[in-house]
Structures
1.
Amino acid sequence: MAGSGHDAALAAAAAAARAWLDGLPDRPVAPAADARAMLAAFSEPVPEEGADPADVVADLVRRAEPGLMATGSGRFHGWVIGGALPAAIGADWLVSAWDQNSAMSEPFPATTMIEQVAAGWVLDLLDLPREASVGFVTGGQMANTACLAAARNHVLAAHGWDVEEAGLQGAPRVHVIVGGQRHDAIDASLRALGLGASTAVVVPADDAGRTRPEAVAAAAAGVRGPTIVCLQVGNVNGGAVDAAGAIADAVRREDLWVHVDGAFGLWARAAPAYRHLVDGVERADSWATDAHKWLNTPYDCGMAICAHPGAHRRAMGMRADYLPQGDDAGLRDPVDYNPELSRRARSVPVWAALCQLGRRGLAELVERCCRMAERFAAALSEADGVEVLGQGLNQVVVRFLDPAGRDDDAHSRAVVARTQAEGTCYPSGTVWRGASCMRISVSGWRTGPEDVDRSVAAILAAHRGS
Ligand SMILES: Cc1ncc(COP(=O)(O)O)c(C=O)c1O
């Protein structure tokens, strides 16, 4: 192999990363090249001979750059994607350089104990039960799956059924109740866990996207036996928050588990000005959330949090004779709380992000994002032919009326596409209550009032066709 040193490769990566990050305020947000162009840029036979590591990195940068989305820009507003904080990026680089298999605490004490501390900090900041268990997983999808696996264990165990040993064949039926505006991640988790997505009882949401509490209570009262209720804190479109505490109080039973998908919205618990919106959420049985959204760590990092650590461990843990096991004196093995064995130390950037922000900085980040979303909603709703259909937390849903009076759906989709192509900012599209809309998410630490004002001007120009 040509070259084995890391100095030049890391220097090339650092220079490219610095250039990328420095360029974020000025570059167009959308990528210049599409997926076909990127496939063409990388399509070639397996190289027969190796190459110098620094040349590999330089070649990677040259080919990939045109196809990169500026997710760290203050004017990136697509989906729910936060930027990455500097300390979290630096920590993430070290996670790769250190290359610790962070499944077991005995052989890999540094990263696994950082994870244990980060888990405690997250429970403190989100004000969830301090004895809850935390699994650091790849993202919201896996966090929901891990929590619902623990839920499945718990509600079946209440009926004397050991689902890990006996599986689901012949098990008592598990009733699942979900909200009408749930994220599709819940359905994917239910499918993966053998609970069935289309057999769930769907409870309607109100116009804002909140699951109707009295309808959940009625649905729960209507079923006997193991039951899982899935609620949401932060709808992916309009940011709506279910009344999770009141619902949990109303449906509480030994064989019923309340799960909350709080992929981004749970972080409002760390922001005093918005905390009242998410009070009571702590009375649920499990919570799925992400660090790579509102905490602004790089991908990938989510957290599965359970108020019943035993159920969590039974659903996720694994043991093998060749794997060392930590002692039981409160030192946790990450392998017990997530579906993977070998894994990167994805909690280290969480620790670093929390050190950079502190409790106060985290509150400011969340509050600023919410205020910027409110600024978007206020400015857009003043414009002719623009309707703000929903605004909650850091999310905004907007509809554009066709000035020619023909087709508002087609016009709204065109405004999204034109805005993305123009490059000043990048909102994304959705369908909300049957209507095509633009959705705007403010999840990044860089977004300030000037970014919002420039984005609003670009969106309105796309709406007016100018
Ligand atoms: C409410 C909600 N749940 C789950 C997810 C899935 O999270 P991830 O993309 O991190 O897997 C998202 C993503 O936006 C979300 O908004």
2.
Amino acid sequence: MDFQQVWTPQKLKQCSPREVEELIPQLREQIIDAVSQTGGHLASNLGVVELTLALHRVFDSPRDKIVFDVGHQCYAHKILTGRGKQMQGLRQYGGISGFPKREESPHDAFGTGHASTALSAALGMARARDLKGENHHVVVVVGDGALTGGMCYEALNDAGCSRTPLIAILNDNQMSIAANVGAVSGYLTYMRTSKGWLTAKKIVAEGILRLPLVGKPLHRVMQRVKNDIRNIFIKDKFFDGFGFRYLGPVDGHDEQGLERFLKRAKRFSEPVLLHVVTTKGKGYAVAESDPSRAHGMPAFDPQDGSPKHKSSAKSFGTAAGKLLTRLAEKDERIVAITAAMADSTGLGPFQQAYPKRLFDVGIAEEHAVTMAAGFAASGMRPVVAIYDTFMQRTYDQMMVDVCLQNLPVLFLVDRAAMGGEDGATHHGIYGANFMRQMPHMQVLNPRSVQEMELMIRWALSQSGPCAIRYPKAEHPLMAAYPCKSFSPGKWEELEKGQDITLVATGPMVAEALIASHLLRERGLRASVINASSIKPLDFALLRRLSDNGSAYTVMEEQALMGGLGGAIGEYCIQEGLRAPEHIFAIPDRFITQGQHDELTAELGLRGEDIASEIAGRIAKTA
Ligand SMILES: Cc1ncc(C[n+]2csc(CCOP(=O)(O)OP(=O)(O)O)c2C)c(N)n1
């Protein structure tokens, strides 16, 4: 493929079927090429190349709206809507997003990133269209993994009964990040492999082949249109029950067949669900053979898929999973719960050791949390491992089902920091802020893996809820600062100095140490406090800071509003204490994508930025 070529849906529509067939491997090559340099969602994108081509040939984007659930499978869509050249900057600072973004292109009808939202958004668009008297199609692409999320059923239920015309395309590759789970996934497998269909196909094929003269040619035609006849034999109960007209299952790698089905779906003036069967990672052996690993890849060598950069940083999630596995041996009450991300959250070893005590609920975070509350109410010790950004949807379940009943649920909250290249939808910077509002909840941000392990042991001995939030990997500086003990509401002094006190939490402790070293070079001595316990605060230490009159600042890689600095400020106002001089935190705006250090540089959150800012402030007041 000429990677410099700018594709548009209009141009694509002018291609002959043969030219479209030739485009398929070229699109895959371009996706592999881009992701091998930037990292990104590889396998999901390789699986929907034919589907995306067919969509843009049959529908008229941006007049017709195409909404991608999660949106991690939108790379071919980006290439075909004029952004091929920009693929080199995919997910990079200042480059195009790895997810659909309305501000990026009129073809990105709706911004996504978190699963199971697209059907609801599309229904809103379809209803708006009808109220405004407009006449266009609204199409949703939703994966079988995303279909494990409850919001999908709220939308199906609503759309089906209102009969609003809407085309839902179910991209069924049997995979979420790992193999998909749950009863609906089982039903989809039944639909794909339905005995009725297989028997009927055999009978028809044998019958046709026996026909004199026309038998063989007719059989060849039948092979080509097998997708089309499948519907005659398979009767769906599930989606029909919701009020959707079910079409399929169809081969998602037969581009022309897909076009025929999409044209058919277009003709209905009611909700339609087209069941498309695809192979995750299609066309690239590295991804097809291990679609789970190739779901999200760091930059890699396209020859063999090996990562370009090896990291030796200690992973918090891996260490948490290993410790939990050891603790579960002695404590049979421990169960682990994941929302479709067992490996990503480090629970792989636990799953292997205790398959019956690991519950993968699918992409259903709300259900995971309330189910954990049920476990806890029955005397078990549930541990829920979910990324910070996906905990956002569980606010109510945490508050009412867990905290209100003071149930001992332990939340292991991974990726609690800026998420880098995935951008605004994935930064884990709000969890501490909303969790600390919840009565009974204790919120802890360890600075190192060692401290996290101490916290996990402590939290499992408690009788109420606790959230331990940590980033992906430990800062290498932490090796020089071993952590001997942990007790909640007691902060640790890592360095002593009389000019300023830096109160830092989580990953910002390393930046505070860097700032302290740089300040020393300027003749200033800083104390560095590890405020690992966000709730409760170290009230005694805050009182001492206020009494001794020395200036102090707060440093946190989380939202300014309602974070650690806010918590300290609230306490100081209530108690008539001296508040911090400044809070280094994330301002009240959405943060873009980029390498972690590019983002911290933009926000002035690197140790060096903080040292300069503090030195300037001290110079002004001197
Ligand atoms: C609410 C939420 N939880 C978890 C995730 C992480 N996540 C991203 S993609 C994905 C699997 C999606 O599977 P599917 O919809 O079948 O798409 P596929 O990658 O298989 O094409 C998960 C769990 C997310 N994006 N949103």
